[in-house]
Amino acid sequence: MTPTQLHRHAAHDWWRGATLYQIYPRSFMDANGDGVGDIAGIIQRLDYLATLGVDAIWISPIFTSPMQDFGYDVSDYRDIDPLFGTLEDFTRLIARAHELGLAVIIDQVLSHSSDQHVWFRESRQSRDNAKADWYVWADPRPDGSAPNNWLAAFGGPAWTFDSRRCQYYLHNFLASQPDLNFHHPEVRQAQLGNLRFWLELGVDGFRFDTANFYFHDRALTDNPPSSDDYRSRGHPRSYQQLKHNADQPENLDYLEEIRALLDEYPGATSVGEVGGSDPLPAMAAYTAGQHRLHMAYTFDLLNSTGDAMALHAVLARFADHGDDAWPCWALSNHDVPRSASRWGSDRALLALTVLCSLRGSLCLYQGEELGFEEAELSYAELQDPFGIALWPEVKGRDGCRTPMVWEPHCNGGFCADSLSPWLPVHVPHQSHAVSLQQEAPESLLNHVRQLLRLRGENTLLKTGQQTLISPSVLPKGVFGVIRHDRHQRMMCLANLGHQSGHDNSPVMLDLTALLGSRTLHGQCHDPIEIVSLPGMATPILEAGQLRLSPGMAAWLVVPADASRDQDG
After folding, report:
1. For residue 384, with 0-12 CB atoms within 10 Å meaning exposed, 13-18 middle and 19 or more buried, which class applies?
2. How many other β-carbons are positioned within 10 Å of the β-carbon of residue 192?
3. pLDDT digit string (tens) for 250-271?
4. Is 393 one of the annotated active-site residues of the chain?
5. Is the pLDDT of residue 55 over 60?
6. Candidate list 73, 204, 209, 300, residue with the active-site label
7. Which of 113, 52, 38 is nearest to 77 (CA)?
8. Strands 269-273, 295-297: parallel, antiparallel or unpaired by DSSP?
9. Where is the Glycosyl hydrolase family 13 catalytic domain (predicted)?
10. Which 3 state secondary structure label does DSSP give 205?
11. Given the residues 228, 264, 393, 565, the one annotated as active site
12. DSSP structural state of residue 423
């Protein structure tokens, strides 16, 4: 057992308040010269991640796959695709990561497999073979149409007709990604066995793709229409509430089976992706107590634009579902436009400072620490089936998946300049290269390192309780939370107004109103301490008034009895 594993054995909850770093392996580092990132490339760059100050890496799928959805269509759950390397390469990655104090979390795509998986190949042969019921099959309606109105994420019906069985099979995503039938006990056990395989190999946990899509409504009831505010033009499935093909009650029981398995491996953890029409209640339910997932995330913050009212609303809705749920908050990942484009490139550090102030674990996406904005690609450059199917209204996910830029030249040090990478390097990213930012003390990269170190050393920020400050007691555009435990409190504020524009004046916050007068008139033993935040000017505090300019954040350590509870 490595020193890292021994540490986790003693501290089972190392994940609570930890910072994860997502690696999209196709785009991280190409070591074998084929224009696609690989495991050997990740190993080459692990030292960089260790110096960044993250606790764990999450690696997107590297399993054997025909790559119709770039690894999220698995054809062998227990092997590495040759594109990325071998199992031996992967065990070397685990060993090196543990030497550096990094946990290794890998994707698990349990809800569906590739249509090239041996299970599905057997299942589709007949209605009475050993795997006949391992996938979701249904007879046509009397007129030959699909069994119900369910739609696939990438457009079109969620059903494809198979002439061998004269039945439709369910696929919530691509037709080449048939959904497994989790109502079948052998399916559930088979996937638990696949998880055990990787735990035995030494991984520290799993990120569960589409964790609320394991079970479907057996009656195949039609989904109802969604409300207008949920609908996204150009995205047909958003016109439905995903009521019957996701979030079924049986999901909770299976998550408890997964947790029981993970508990056999001290320190092993889990983070679930929860999508759908109303994900926050599911996210809370999936992480409630000690018997389901350790952490989960939704797309609510992943779609945020840095609006203070909207940010408060997301966190308030989550808080309504109980204090024992544990989120893993993120602003960027491989499925959404980059946060530096949504929030604004001039607010990249502000966004991460806000993220670091929140209760929960955090996840950064590769390039986020460098300030990468969303890449613009032409239709001819697209690889993502989502974007190809729904262009031009939906541009797909390739814009956030372009290669990392390690050096300021043609292919960014991701691969040799003589090669054609699988996606083009975004030229504006070259000026944000790691090598340039490493040498610049005031770079975003170095500020993020300091920020993560600051949070990692602060128990209050990592695991303390959280009270939201109501927008009604804050100036317009200001977001705030109070982090607290039995010994101290910290008020975290951020002026999310834009530094450019017609309304870019500083705001004045009356701390007397927010904290009460006892602190400000010397009746408490400890004065307010203003934490020095990396890359941020220190706000001015005079006579109980805090001056906060647009784009500025402030963390104030206040005496434990000085802060009144604020309405969340």
Report:
1. buried
2. 16
3. 999 999 999 999 999 999 999 9
4. no
5. yes
6. 209
7. 113
8. parallel
9. 22-401
10. strand
11. 264
12. S
Q: Are 18 and 270 within 8 A, CB to CB?
A: no
Answer for the pair 154, 177: CB distance below 8 angstroms, yes or no: no
High-pLDDT (> 90) share of the chain, %: 85
Question: Side by side, which strands form the sheet with 103-108?
Answer: 295-297, 269-273, 205-208, 103-108, 56-59, 19-23, 361-365, 328-330
The encoded tokens of residue 384 equal: 């993502």
- List 107's β-bridge partners, or say none: 207
- Helix 3-10 and helix 87-99, axial crossing angle in degrees, nearest 10: 70
Non-local (6+) Cβ contacts of 519 within 8 A are 511, 527, 528, 558, 559, 562
Please state the rounded mean pLDDT for residues 120-142: 98
Rounded to whole angstroms, the maximal C-alpha distance in the chain is: 81
**Can you read off the two tokens belonging to residue 405?**
């830029």
Amino acid letter, 253: D
564, pLDDT greater than 70? no
> Which of 17, 58, 54, 46 shows the shortest CA–CA distance to 453?
54
Residue 264 appears among annotated catalytic residues: yes
Return the bridge partners of 179, or none: 112
Q: Which helix (H) or strand (E) holds 546?
A: strand 545-548
Residue 513's pLDDT is 83
| Three-state SS at 539 | coil
Q: Tell me the residue length of the chain.
A: 568
* Gyration radius of the chain over CA positions: 24
Cβ neighbours for 184, distance < 8 A, ≥ 6 positions apart: 133, 134
Residue type, 410: C
Mind listing the pLDDT tens digit for each residue in 142-192?
Answer: 999 999 999 999 889 999 999 999 999 999 999 999 999 999 999 999 999
